[in-house]
Amino acid sequence: QSPPTILITYYTQSGKTQAMAEAVAAGVSEVKGVEYILKPMANVTKEEVLNASAIILGSPVYNANMAPQVQEFINSWPFEGRPLKDKIGAVFVTGGGFSIGEEAVMFNMIRAMMIQGMIIVGGEEVETAFGASAITGEGEFVGKEVQEIFLKKAEGLGKRVGEMVLRVQ
Ligand SMILES: Cc1cc2nc3c(=O)[nH]c(=O)nc-3n(C[C@H](O)[C@H](O)[C@H](O)COP(=O)(O)O)c2cc1C
User: Fold this and answer.
1) What phi and psi, each to the nearest 5 degrees, are found at residue 104?
2) If you measure from the C-alpha of residue 122 to the centroid of ligand 1, how many angstroms do you get, rounded to a whole number?
3) How far apart are the C-alpha atoms of 83 and 80, rounded to whole Å?
4) N or C: which end of the chain has fewer CB within 10 A?
């Protein structure tokens, strides 16, 4: 039997959310006995969604909402028979500023996953209770790269999801 697979998928325009996705994948790879698929949403197949034991979704914050491409992806998930029920779900976001949408977007994605009957998991630390978020455009966090403190949160999220997938098997 092949090991359980975690689908890590994201939308990005300027690479910040992709950097977080890569850190999530690094966290998953710390857990033995699980595999992951890491790719942008546009390239994800229906089979990859259906076969995943966990789905970890990433979005940038656009006007305090998830990117429309992320909403479209979620809307494309099959619902009849609730085939995503009992899969683990987790989220990560990047937003330009503090408290101008990041947490709202996390909960928008979490709510959509809960409609599917998914089991929501946060990160390792209380600072990632709802998932991993990064600030990319305010104060000391302005810059081309996502800061290490946020990448660590993403890594912890990936690790916890990996561990939880093995636990609920
Ligand atoms: C059209 C648009 C709207 C945005 N609206 C918000 C916002 O409401 N709140 C926020 O925190 N950041 C906002 N941002 C900033 C992005 O969320 C931020 O730069 C993010 O890290 C970009 O991710 P990416 O590099 O993966 O594309 C907005 C960016 C764009 C392009």
Assistant:
1) -60, -40
2) 22
3) 7
4) N
- Which amino acid residue places its CA nearest to atom 27 of ligand 1? 13
Q: How many C-beta atoms surround the C-beta of residue 21 within 10 A?
A: 25
ipTM exceeds 0.85: yes
Whether residue 69 has its Cβ less than 6 Å from ligand 1: no
Testing ligand 1's pocket by substitution, the residue of 18, 24, 59, 63 carrying the most ligand atoms inside 8 A of its CB is 63
Which sign, positive or negative, has the C-alpha torsion 148, 119, 34, 42? negative
Ordered by where they begin, the domains of the chain are 5-168 (3.40.50.360)
- Over residues 98-144, the pLDDT tens digits come to 999 999 999 999 999 999 999 999 999 999 999 999 999 999 999 88
